[in-house]
Amino acid sequence: MAYSVTFEKLIAFLRMHLTFACCWPLPPTATKLQIIYDKFFRLFNSLHAMLIICTVAYRIITQYDNTLVLIQLSCVLGTLCEIPVQIYLFTREYDRLQNIILKMENFNKHANPIERDVIQEYINKHIAIYGITLILMTVTVVALILVPLVLAQPVLELEYPFSIDYQPMRGIIYLHQSFALYQVYAQVCATVFLALLLWFPTARFEILANKFRMATEHSDWKACVREHQELLKFTKQVTISLSYITLSSLGVSTITVVFSGLTFLGQFPMIVKMQYSIVCCSSLSKVFLCTWPADHLMSMSSYVGDAAYNSLWYEYGTATQKLMLYTLFRSQRPVIVSVPGLVAALSLQHYASYVSMAFSYLTSFRAILSNDMD
After folding, report:
1. Residues 299, 334 contacting (CB under 8 angstroms)
2. What are the tens digits of pLDDT across the range 201-218?
3. What are phi and psi of 339, to 5 degrees?
4. Buried residues in 41-74 as b, exposed as e (16+ CB within 10 A)
5. 3-class state of residue 343 by DSSP
6. What is the pTM of this model?
7. CA dihedral 188, 349, 360, 283 (to 10 degrees)
8. Helix axes 67-92, 218-265, angle to 10 degrees
9. CB–CB of 212/60 below 8 Å?
10. DSSP string, 57-72
């Protein structure tokens, strides 16, 4: 890359790029007018999404006897439902996310050169895959919006309880559907925001592990243990704020993968199959890009105990050894993103199970629909 993507630039870019995802909270210094505008903006985006959802539901009701159309619209409906659900969840976690981002920015602001190097190393290592993903998604949504404009057809083949065969109604419908598509795109891109919230504490655990290895005095050990406790509290805030957001993303992605897969296997035109195969791949990659840092966070939070054990703790007094034991015991319980009773731990192993489950549902629905159409 011609220039380095720093943490400050990354924060500024995501804050602007994810505006319509409504995932980024205002800073604590926001004025009352800014807060009112933010609430109105979130409400507007939610109501617009609900409007397009009602439109798709109306088409499903009128075409309930058409299996192929039902499959296609069910995929669209599942994707659109993520918009108001995610906005609600991000709004519910507003205060916690605001506190998390504030702590992230403060840590980066006061970090020493060594800590900054570790954070920059994480950015350099992962910026390519997330950047390419954003570029591909951007190109896709632009194509999906512009191609219907060139072909003089709507973005989505929907029905309305009123006539739309005149201008400016055609233009209004086109803008309405295009903006809904952009909202879906924004929610998919919000995965990068979730990944940032997971990669940052992972980098901090690595920084802490390096400090444990370099500790030479009892006071250094106490400082490391104190930082370990603060970091555990911080990661607990992160995992709590992301748990139900992740669950909703998994649920919507499952619906999208199943019905887009049925669209791909069904008797649809090739252009439709290509569109929904892109939707299917996007849903799988969205879950992976969030699962990957969650799995790495589990490993790195346990790695702190290994770093403490491999240090020179045995050369110091009993007090230092007790601190080491406490750190070891706590590190045996890794930091996980979970939903009690539903998701034990978000990890790559869980992602493999998720993909297997989604395709099992796809196979079952395919068999049922084949029997119905026969």
Report:
1. yes
2. 999 999 999 988 887 777
3. -125, 110
4. ebeebbebbeebbebbeebbeeeeeeebbbbbbb
5. strand
6. 0.88
7. 10
8. 160
9. no
10. HHHHHHTTT-HHHHHH
